[in-house]
Amino acid sequence: MTWTNSPFRSLDARRLLSLVLIGAFVWSLSSVDWRGGIVHTGGGDALKDFPLALFPPELSPGFLKLGLIASWQTVVHAVAGITLAIIIGLPLGIIASGSLGKPGRVRMLVAAVMRFILAFMRSIHELIWAVLFVAAFGLSSLAAVLAIAIPYAGILGRIYSELLNDVSEGPLDGLRSAGASPAGVLIYGRMPMVLTDLLSYGFYRFECAIRAAAIMSFVGIRGLGFEIQLSLHDLKFAEVWTLLLFLFGLVLLVDYWSTSVRRSLNS
Amino acid sequence: MSQYQNSSNRATHDINHSRFLVDGRGLSKVFGTLTAVSPLDIAIKAGERVALVGPSGSGKSTILYILAGLIPPDSGDLFLDSKSTVGLQPGRELSEFVGLIRQQLDLVPQLPVVQNVLAGRLGQWGLLRSLVSLFSARERDSVLATLSKLGIADKIDEPTSQLSGGEQQRVAIARLMLQAPKIILADEPVSSLDPARADEILRLLTGLADDIGGVMVASLHAPDLIREHFTRVIGLREGVLQFDIPSEELMPSVLEALYDLDQQPIPIS
Ligand SMILES: Nc1ncnc2c1ncn2[C@@H]1O[C@H](COP(=O)(O)OP(=O)(O)O)[C@@H](O)[C@H]1O
Ligand SMILES: [Mg+2]
Question: Which residue has the CA at smallest separation from atom 7 of ligand 1?
Fold first, then answer.
């Protein structure tokens, strides 16, 4: 069914749909148990105490050291995870782009299978991968790194394959006329033409990997999130604030770094 | 004008086409409803320098692309150096026979000049060598010598995108020199150049063709340059051959008639 003969083209139908959606939303509100259900007992106090605990956050040397170590663990997981993701994602992306091998059915089939594998890798959230890898390897850094690397390789591989396919054909024809094989066209044409985009996108994903590494705590892997969870459990909000500031600083730092690297790449 | 129509040595074709480096028979190309090239015979011997002339849209680029294997012809046979090349795509096999410089030059802007020139070797190199050379250029000396001949040796390590149009054209010629195909094709190589530079570029291209004992086919519009650098000139209009004559017979009136939009082109016989 195309848009032009779709029933939603008529204004009345669209209004009706909006009404139904709003109705569904209102109904869903009524189904929430508002008396004590949404904020647990004592939650009100916590809600009040938490902002106040920022003044001041926990700044004892011992705790700052703990925060630093936790930040370091988070960064290591993110860096190792994204690096592995690029190492895995690039070759898979190249295969998925279908730019290698003789043109024909086999190449198309291999590319389609690879796109399917990439889709599978990224369709499972990093936390679920984390659960799987913790089950396999225990609460180790390896589990955290793999849990980031697999879905991120799926994302990077897909983007990389699209970038490699979207280059202008002229220079590629020039290389082919000069005698380059598909592999030659890839390394002398496609790759140099998209290299800065590949790196740039990798750096962008690195920011996301930092946050992913931090929340790995939910399955018990060490890092900032893990410490946050511990302090939260003990209702030590000043400590929570300190750790949140560490995370915030980390994201800012990576953001600044990745932006400046990306800018110098693109200039 | 029909006295110029090439009777084409069809008789000799069938006996022995090895005399021809380029031997196309009945090549044609249709885009949708538009006939870009009507069935065309084109046979070129080693040593010949052929100019393609005709108003824009007359099919010059299409013919060059067909010869280069970039566009598959809708009909006809094509033999390059006596080998049938119909169905071959640009790549290792074809690059031995034929090299093409398009108007857009088709260099990789992100690569340094030396790598764009070395791309002319990709047909001879294996994958490993190609890969290694990308990080540490092989045969740098021969690139330097070639660029010196073209007067841009100092640009060897610059990003290609930072070169002027004229310099990039020389890089494309340098690549062709390393490729050294027997058949050199150039689409409008001098259209954007002043007369002195145009003369020099054509000298370089014919010199290259001389060195490798091959042929050159180029599209261009300037009659004095054609007489100076070419041995033969083929006139086209709306994809139909109008004349095929020695370049010294190219009278101004012939060209005027070819480019005159009011006159009817010669219909397909
Ligand atoms: N890829 C294409 N798709 C559709 N039409 C084309 C294509 N390439 C060329 N043409 C048409 O074929 C005709 C011949 O084009 P071309 O060979 O470029 O002529 P010339 O080089 O002599 O200017 C023109 O009318 C042009 O518009
Ligand atoms: Mg043209």
Answer: B31
Tens digit of each residue's pLDDT (9 = 90 or more) over A143-175: 999 999 999 999 999 999 999 999 999 999 999
Does residue A18 lie within any of the structural domains?
no
Give the global pTM: 0.81
Q: Which residues are within 8 A (CB) of A58 and not within 5 positions of it... i.e. 6 or more apart?
A: A236, A238, A239, A241, A242
ipTM of this predicted structure:
0.87
Q: Are A208 and A125 a contacting pair, CB within 8 Å?
A: no
- B158: nearest Cα among B122, B107, B223: B107
**CATH code for position A159:** 1.10.3720.10
Nearest to A95 by CA among A80, A120, A116: A116
CA–CA dist B170, B205 (Å, integer): 10
**Residue that is written with structure tokens 């060059």 in the block:** B64
Q: How many domains does chain B have?
A: 2
Range of the domain at A161: 59-266
Regarding whether B91 and B8 lie in a shared domain, the answer is yes
pLDDT digits (tens, 9 = 90+) for A236-249: 888 999 999 998 99
Residue B211 lies in a domain: yes
B124 burial type by CB count under 10 A (0-12 exposed, 13-18 middle, 19+ buried): middle
Pocket flag, ligand 1, residue B61 (CB < 6 Å): yes
Which amino acid belongs to residue B133? Answer: S
Residues A241, A54 contacting (CB under 8 angstroms): yes
**CB neighbours of residue B166 within 10 Å:** 14
Contacts of B115 in chain A (CB under 8 A): 188, 192
Domain count, chain A: 1
Q: Please answer yes or no on whether B90 and A173 come within 8 Å at the CB atom.
A: yes
Q: How many Cβ pairs within 8 Å bridge chains A and B?
A: 93
The CATH number given to whatever domain includes residue B71 is: 3.40.50.300
Residues B114 and B78 in one domain: no
For residue A231, pLDDT beyond 80:
yes
Specify if B102 maps to a domain.
Answer: no
